[in-house]
Every structure is written in C-alpha cells, then in structure tokens.
C-alpha cells in the first residue's frame, strides 16, 4: 500500500506492507487525513512522543471505514464509517485501537470528519476535564486560530462560558475568531493584551487559560488569570523554555496543569474518547461543533499540503484525501 514515510531523503510517498490488526486493533481504510502542527516536526525527523524517525509512517488523524477487526476489537463492524487518531495515518490503511475512534455522523463527509478527532479529544480534555470550566466562568484560549484552538472556543461556549477570549498574532485570523465563539480577540504579541483581558473581566482575570503558546506568554498568563484560577498547558508553540515568575504563581494561587497525549497510556486515551462521546457528542452530530476546512489536497500532493501549513497563512484544517 502507499504511505507517506519519513526516510533517508526526508518524507515521501512509498510502498509499505499493509498492516494487520491484532488484539483490540481495527484496520481502517483511510479516505481523508487531517494535518496537525506536530506532523511538521515529524516530517523533519523529530520524534513526537515515542513515534518518529526513519521508517515512520507519518500522520495522526484520519477518517475512513472499518476494513477488518482484530480478535478482541469491539464496538464497530466492517464497513462502519469512523474517524480517529493515532500513528501512521497518512496511508491507504492504518491501525487504530477500538477505544480511540468515533463513529462518523451520517451528515458528515470524510473530509469533514478528518478534521475533528484530535481537536475534540485534546480540547474537551483541556477545557472540561482538566480545566474544569463551569457555566458562567471566563476563559482565554492562547493560540486560538489553530484548529484545536477554534474547537476550544466552541467547547467553552457550549459549556456556558460567559466570556471567551481568543489570541492570535495574525490580524486576519484574529478578525475571524468571533465566528468561532470569541467575545474578545487579542494579539499576544501586543504588550497591552493583559490589560485588555483584565478590563474585560472587571480587573480580576479569567478563570481558565488554555495555553498552546507557553514560552513568551508564561508570565503574562499569570497576570491574566484570576486568583485561584487555572492554566492548562497543552503546547509549546512559543518554545519549551522561558522565564517564569514563581512568586506571582504562588501569590495568585494558580493551578498550573500540563497535559499531552505523548505520555498517556491507551487506557487513559480510551477514557478521554469516552468522555467526549458522553458529554458533547450530540453537539458534534448536530454540527454545532465543527471546524472549517482551509484547503483539500490529493494524497499525491501531500508535500504541497505541508508547504501550505508551514506558510502559516491558513485558518482551519488542511485535509489530504486518498
């Protein structure tokens, strides 16, 4: 089968053996894939968790149909339309654990379905499970114009947030954040963004920050979070190291929570997918929670899809179809 593999000459489409499902695995015939920021690093040979390096089939998000079941796989049958996340997504066939997938709603095509699994699982876990957002509270999403950021704002609104603030350093994208739930859009490179957040919250700061930037905004986040508020760190787009004001962190008694899928067990991931199904799935089926597709590429042009992502001018998801 054809797959997008990182090799000695970088990433390229090549022939690899079709995988066989074992245990609780499901073999998926892939119809569409969503690109994610972490994929860029892997196309350059960087590891993402335990995956990466020479010989790696790239990709982590897909939509397709069940082609075959492992002997212990449950909950789906051959022919079911599904979407999910996991390694080796950029291929004609991929393997998925039976607990790491969603059924694709009947009103959703494969391209649309491929945009959702990573965003839904990541941001329900960050906003609801770890962020503990309650109706009537206030939230700031750092890096809000990314696909997962757009989903985070929508989930916050769905859960009853009274004020949603989104940040983006790009003026065009910042101007569109209100379409996806932002009541206030700020530029995190503007030295005055913290003052804007404080003004919008009566001087208190927000109850919750979901931070995909970290690095340069770490101390500003502390100032923008209310006393006994919460910061959930889900990314490091601004870098992995920075100055941190420990005294301010202690003085404001902020809960600082780190989350990532890279170190989670399959049991933990199954639980996250179950929580999405139990809590917000009706909003997915009704299309209340959805992501815009910026551009669709054929699998043969997957290199161009990555060039488009690296240009960093898109809003919404980039999709590759097989």
Automatic annotation (TrEMBL):
Q: Which residues form the Enoyl reductase (ER) domain?
A: 7-320
GO MF term set: oxidoreductase activity
Q: Carries keyword NADP?
A: yes
Q: InterPro entries attached here?
A: ADH-like_C, ADH-like_N, ER, GroES-like_sf, NAD(P)-bd_dom_sf, Zinc-ADH_QOR/CCCR
Q: What are the entry keywords?
A: NADP
Q: What is this protein called?
A: Quinone oxidoreductase
> Per the UniProt entry, what species is this protein from, by scientific name?
Bradyrhizobium macuxiense
The organism's lineage? Bacteria, Pseudomonadati, Pseudomonadota, Alphaproteobacteria, Hyphomicrobiales
């Amino acid at each position: 089968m054809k797959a997008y593999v990182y090799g000695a000459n970088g990433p390229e489409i090549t022939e690899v053996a079709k995988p066989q499902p074992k245990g609780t695995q499901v073999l998926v015939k892939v119809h569409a894939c969503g690109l994610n920021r972490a994929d860029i690093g892997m196309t350059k040979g960087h590891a993402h968790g335990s995956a990466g390096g020479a010989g790696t089939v790239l990709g982590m998000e897909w939509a397709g149909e069940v082609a075959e079941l492992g002997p212990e796989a449950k909950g789906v049958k051959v022919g079911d339309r599904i979407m999910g996340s996991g390694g080796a997504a950029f291929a004609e066939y991929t393997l998925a654990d039976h607990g790491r997938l969603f059924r694709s709603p009947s009103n959703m095509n494969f391209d649309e379905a491929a945009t959702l699994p990573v965003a839904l699982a990541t941001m329900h876990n960050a906003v609801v499970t770890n962020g503990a957002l309650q109706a009537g509270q206030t939230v700031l999403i750092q890096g809000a114009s990314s696909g997962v950021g757009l989903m985070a704002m929508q989930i916050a609104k769905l859960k009853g947030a009274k004020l949603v603030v989104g940040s983006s350093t790009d003026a065009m994208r910042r101007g569109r954040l209100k379409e996806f739930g932002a009541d206030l859009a700020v530029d995190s490179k503007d030295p005055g963004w913290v003052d804007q957040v404080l003004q919008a919250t009566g001087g208190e700061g927000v109850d919750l920050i979901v931070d995909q930037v970290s690095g340069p905004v770490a101390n500003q986040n502390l100032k923008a979070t209310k006393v006994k508020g919460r910061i959930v760190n889900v990314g490091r787009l601004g870098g992995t190291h920075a100055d941190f004001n420990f005294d301010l962190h202690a003085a404001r008694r902020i809960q600082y929570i780190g989350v990532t899928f890279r170190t989670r067990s399959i049991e933990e991931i199954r639980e996250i997918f179950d929580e999405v199904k139990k809590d917000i799935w009706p909003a997915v089926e009704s299309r209340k929670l959805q992501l815009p597709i910026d551009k669709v590429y054929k699998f043969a042009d997957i290199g161009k899809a990555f060039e488009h992502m690296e240009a960093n001018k898109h809003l919404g998801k980039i999709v590759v179809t097989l």
